[in-house]
Structures are given as structure tokens and as C-alpha cells.
Amino acid sequence: MADRPLIAITGASSGIGEATARVFSAAGHPVLLMARRLDRLQALSLPNAVLKQVDVRDRAALAAAVADAESQYGPVDMMFANAGIARLGDIAKQPPEEWDEMIDINTKGVMNSVHAVMNGMIARRHGTLMMMSSIAGRKVYPDHTVYCGTKYFVHAVSESFREYLAPHDVRVIVLSPGIIDTEVLDGVRDETTLANYRANKEAIGGGISADIVAELILNAYNLPQKAIVQEIVITPTRQKY
């Protein structure tokens, strides 16, 4: 059993999820890392890590992963509901199956992640929900139609969860990044949208490192439980928002 509490992260195989796993592990926390790409989790080689191949659309698999990790390291004290996908594209030309994928992963996946830990946090009167959103959850962008809708959803349910959970001393923090250097563009299949995104990214001097975001998450988590950073908004300095 580790001295520090267990941290659970979905979408932990790359990007902000991977960076957050590394930062919390370096701080001495055991980590439950969940993703569809188990080989990427194994390649991290982090100590005190429970690795689970989980698709966040599978509520039962997610809950089972949490239960297994908690049996080894005690209760999850922070759930980072990070897993998501960005199928950006021209809404009139985009296959509806891409809408379904974003809605299922970015909204239902977040709810499944919360569901796996919320009642335990209420019972213990302690815990933090870190909810991955985006600046696209506050402002709409071209070719982001359904993606923006999923991120507006995260903002809305997070505010409702925060009001519900605050009397139980459980914190709900929304993370709203701008352009970060991750694999997010791997999900974009619309060539025009992809070219426009890359041109905008280049025009502002590129994105910022996921490590910077991970450090912010750790700092917010490390505040006393009675203090909460309700939302973290971080973008490149030159990005308009």
C-alpha cells in the first residue's frame, strides 16, 4: 500500500493523460491508468501502477478496473475523466458515425468515469473529479460542431456535479485547454479541417506541452480539500480565445 492516495486516469496512453500519469507517479501516487492501447500504458513503466485496457464507453469494465485498483491501493482520491476524441469536420459532410463516437466517448465516457467513484467519494467526504473539457466548451469554432456540443455538455454537468458534491467536500474541477501538443489531430479525417487547424497552430507559434497542463492539475489537486480551482483554462499566449 502506497503512502499517497490512488489517482485514476482515463485516456492515459498519450497526451495530457500520459503527462498527468507521469507527474502524479513522480509525486509518489499509485496510479490506475486506463486506455484502449494497453501497450502504450505498459511502455510508461511507472511504479505502483495498475494498467487496464478499458474503453470508457464500457461502464462495467471501467467500474471493474476501479474496484481492482482500489483493492490494491485504497480508494481513488482523484478521477481524471480525460479520455476523449476530436472528429472535427464540415458538419454537412461529416459521417454521422463520427458524431456518435464523439458523443459516446466525450459525454457518456465522462459520466461512466464519474459514476465509478462518486458514491465512494461522498461516503468518505473526500475526493476530486478532474473533468476534461476544452475552450471549445465555452466558445464555438468552425468544424467543431459536435465536438463543441460534447464539451459544452462537460461544462454543464460539471457545474451541476460541483453544486451537488460541494456539501460532501468533493471537488469538481474543469480543465479547459486550448491548443496543446498532443495526438488530438489523429482523430481528424476531414483534410480541409485538418489543414486549417495545422495552419492556425503554426500561426500562433505552435501548441504548448502537455507537461505544463499536468503540473497545473497536480497543483490544483494539492490544494487543501477546502479550496478548489473550479476551472483551469490554459492556452498558448498567442491563441485567441
TrEMBL record:
Top-rank lineage group of the source organism: Bacteria
Cited InterPro entries: NAD(P)-bd_dom_sf (IPR036291), Sc_DH/Rdtase_CS (IPR020904), SDR_fam (IPR002347)
Keyword Iron-sulfur: no
Chain ranges passing through the membrane: none
UniProt keyword annotations, A-Z: Oxidoreductase
Pfam families: adh_short
Family membership: Belongs to the short-chain dehydrogenases/reductases (SDR) family.
Name of this chain's protein: Oxidoreductase
Protein's organism: Rhizobium anhuiense
Species classification: Bacteria, Pseudomonadati, Pseudomonadota, Alphaproteobacteria, Hyphomicrobiales
